[in-house]
Amino acid sequence: MPSPTAFSIVAGVFVLCVSPVYAQYTTASFGGNVVDSNNAVLPQSQVIVRNVDTGFTQSATTDQSGAFLFPRLPIGSYELRVELPGFSTYVQSGITLTVDQAATQTVVMQIGQVSEEVTVQADSPLVGTRNGTLGQLVDQKRVVELPLNGRMAQSLVFLAAGTVDLGRNGCRICGHGGVYPGEQTAGVNGAGMAQVNYQLDGAGHNDTYLNVNVPFPNPDAVQEFNLQANNFTAEYGNAAGGIVNIVTRSGTNEIRGSLFEFLRDGKLNARNFFAPTKDTLKRNQFGGSVGGPVLKEQLFYFGTYQGTRIRSEAAGRVAFVPTAAERAGDFSSLSRQLVDPVTRQPFPNNQIPQDRISPVAKYFLKSIPLPNRGGRELNFVGTEQIETENQFMTKMEYNRHGHQISGRYFFTDYDRPAVIPADNILAASNAGNAVRVQNVSVNHTFSIRPTALLTSTFGFNRQRGGSLSSGPFGYPDAGVRIASAASSALKAPPEIVMNVTGGFSINTNHLGDFDRGDFTIRENLTTIHGPHELHVGGEVVRLSNHIINTFRMDGNFTFNGSLSGDGLADFLLGRASTFVQGGGEFKDLKGTRWGFFAQDNWRVNERLTVNLGVRWDPYYPYYDRQGRVVCFQPGAKSQRYPNAPAGVLYGGDNHDPGCPVGGSDANVWNIAPRTGFAYRLTDDGKTSLRGGFGHFYTPIQASAFNPFTNIAPFAPGFSFDGVSFEDPFGSVAVRNPFPEQYGPRVPGAEATFVTPTELRAVFSQDFRTPLLAAWNLSLERQIATDWVFRVAYIGNRGIYFFGAAENSREINPAIYVPGASTVANTQARRRYQDYSRI
Question: What is the pLDDT at residue 14?
Fold first, then answer.
């Protein structure tokens, strides 16, 4: 559904070592003009570039305007050689091409013999004069030398102006399962979360479940990366905020290697002045890399390994727990008056009768120590932190007879075991996690002829793992009359989630296996026709998401004090303000992101280049292949499930009339025009004016479809207010649906329904793909050899912004009735009585 628009401006930026950017994924482009000393153009000049590290060579001939262009060159150090009869041979070394760079060089020839050489040692100008894209290069020197917490190179994305960490004040994705450490929520120029597309050696390097990055290789394996922050060309899609192209290191004609060891140990550090003890973190990172030739100037290899071991002593924690007197029912020390949640009458002198203390609460109190400070305060230590990570990467490259072929495999595995506390359940942690990421890329560039290149890319990305439970027991063990995941077909370990306002909280987490990933196929045909550099092609991203998750299967309770006047008193009385339980989260989702593009980079004259492009990004909703797709149409009756309450319809391949296959309509005509320009203001090529405008679509993350799986009859969810801790379903006169309705079942038309049921989230049928219109104008001037001064204006306007389930609008609220609204009659005040929350 449409959301409020967004607007952002970034201006007045001073940038160090900026490179003009272009759509290249893993390569750079290099072009320019050949003229004589009188500035007359020299057509038919022979131009040769050679990579000094690998011997890779390409040649071109200048056109009638004296221009030449190499549209896709592997990054690295190059030598430029220009020959023309009647002129001395021009040789320039020291040219460094970086990822996404659109380098430009003007060659001035001197009259003489071809056998004579004029040698120049200089790099090409840093100022962009061939496109309107704004970006920031992070080269190998910065990757290796800048301080990195945990050697996570992805954090250097935030060096770019206008880029912020949206999770800096609190993790935005930590509630999701299967998240690998180092996944970050970058926001670029106000575009918002989940709008950056990461590419590793031309292959998708994204967690499409959340639309964020997966971990970068270790810094010794990263050659460089570039963030395209505004007005990227039509070759790029699947993001509106930015494109990050990461290029890993490659082998060269020389064997080169490195070994490293990084140790952090609190015993070697001074105590922080404000800390009571020394830092207890022990982190050891070690590994190495090696690269070289198999066949010189043809076949090269590179490999790297990094191991990480982290150990940290248990951290001190604070909770507020019932005193010995309160455990016996004596709350006389409490200043506010307690009331009986059942009769609504005050407890005399705040004394709760012994027979009113919940047996379930008594069971929990066996694992909750008494206060050891004043009042209710309990100081205790949590569980030890143990983390292990192993990462390696291998890469091969081949250059021969017009073919450039590269293949790379990246593997990283993270394990943080769940530690089950022995005698204090408050020490239980929800941080248990085990995740593995694998990424493959294969690139092939074929020179059909000097003015035509075909680039083919295949990428595969897989991420699997998830949460682990640290629960020593479950709610049924404590006497709560509900089922648990242990009684399901999964025989999963227990989970306890409980929050007592003003007191303590317990979160042991649960078993979650999140198997997700994607593969990418991309074709890009580049042709040069006079002053026109044309790109046409397309890409297919096929994503999958298979989940086995015991989410909410064990239920969770909240005691917020609204019933008796105190959260701990509610807990001891066994009256929960909120109870939630579901049938789990089981998913077999697949979907395809399509993208097609055409781009013309038109050199109008020596000073002006215009970039014209259009991209087509049709959106077809991903959907669960078992038919776990839900729509809500008030009053409508389902044909697929005749016993379902009025209003809920079902999608999938066998969908109800009125409910599309994927739960919302396809957005076929997502057409995104892109325009840009670059104007060279000075003859030396060191001052330029650049700008552009474009439309950018961002497909939504796969996790947005999770709520469909939490809805009856697949794995229904229930939420009640003001329930008994001991018998939450019975206390609200609802038949307990579990374990009968636990997932991963997909029942037939005979399925029965327990009401009121919860619709955790549904899509509006006319859902639209989030769209960002962005524009920029920048003035750049190169100063000395490696400084660029840039003043830029960047703006954008977003529509159809997407809000995940936790941020969606409640369409079945309990209507407030003055003087007659209580927690007990919450459900009775809802518009649709067969449903709780929608």
Answer: 37
Residue 559 token pair: 């005691």
**Per the structure block, which two tokens stand in for 576?**
């929960």
The token pair that represents 118 in the structure block: 């004029």
Instruction: Write phi, then psi, for 707 (nearest 5 degrees).
Output: -60, -25
pLDDT digits (tens, 9 = 90+) for 755-776: 888 888 888 899 999 999 999 9
Which distant-in-sequence residues (6+ apart) come within 8 Å of 145 by Cβ?
Answer: none
| φ/ψ bin of 490: left (φ > 0), alpha (ψ from -120 to 50), beta (otherwise) | alpha
Q: Report which DSSP code applies to 682.
A: S
| Distance, CA of 147 to CA of 608 (rounded, Å) | 40
Query: C-alpha angle with apex 803: 654 to 581, nearest 5 degrees?
Result: 65
Please give the pLDDT value at position 443.
94
pLDDT single digits (tens) 563-617:
999 999 999 999 999 999 999 999 999 999 999 999 999 999 988 999 999 999 9
Q: Which residues contact 762 (CB under 8 A, 6 or more apart)?
A: 630, 631, 632, 663, 707, 708, 838
Strand, helix or coil for residue 222? strand
For residue 564 the two structure tokens come to: 């008796």
Nearest to 603 by CA among 533, 506, 521: 533
Phi, psi values for residue 492, rounded to 5°: -80, 160
Measured on CA atoms in the order 545, 546, 549, 552, is the torsion positive or negative?
positive
Residue 157 contacts residue 244 (beta carbons within 8 Å): yes
Bridge partners (DSSP) of residue 463 are 437, 516
List the one residue out of 160, 175, 389, 402 whose CA is nearest residue 286: 389
Query: At 143, which helix (H) or strand (E)?
Result: helix 140-145
3-state DSSP of 573-620: HCEEEEEEEECCEEEEEEEEEEEEEEEEEEECCCCEEEEEEEEECCEC
Mean pLDDT of 737-750: 90
Who contacts 210 (Cβ-Cβ below 8 Å, separation ≥6)? 173, 176, 179, 183, 194, 701, 703
Residues 199 and 237: beta-carbon distance below 8 Å: no
> Cα–Cα–Cα angle for 245, 74, 211, nearest 5°?
15
Interatomic CA distance for residues 393 and 307, integer angstroms = 12
Instruction: Read off the DSSP letter of residue 269.
Output: S
> Which residues, 6 or more positions from 792, have their beta carbon under 8 angstroms from its beta carbon?
10, 11, 12, 13, 134, 161, 776, 777, 778, 779
Unique residue bearing structure tokens 């505004």: 230
The CA distance from 223 to 346, in Å, is 70
How far is it, in rounded angstroms, from Cα 539 to Cα 455?
12
Gap between the Cα atoms of 609 and 229, Å rounded: 20
On whether the CB atoms of residues 234 and 259 are closer than 8 A, the answer is no
Q: Are 362 and 375 in contact (CB under 8 A)?
A: no
Tokens linked to 357:
């203390």
pTM of structure = 0.90
Give 503's contacts (C-beta < 8 A, 6+ positions apart). 319, 320, 321, 322, 376, 559, 567, 568, 571
Q: Which of 50, 395, 22, 74 is nearest to 220 (CA)?
A: 395
Alpha carbons 364 and 373: distance in angstroms, whole number? 20
Digit-coded pLDDT (tens) for 804-816: 544 567 888 989 9
Report the amino acid identity of residue 770.
P
Residue with tokens 């962009």: 128
Whether the Cβ atoms of residue 408 and residue 377 lie closer than 8 Å to each other: no
**CA 751 vs CA 490, 527, 644, 729: distances in Å:** 21, 59, 8, 20
431-454 burial by CB neighbour count: b if 16+ within 10 A, else e? Answer: bbbbbbbbbbbbbebeeeeebebe
Q: Does the pLDDT of residue 24 top 70, yes or no?
A: no
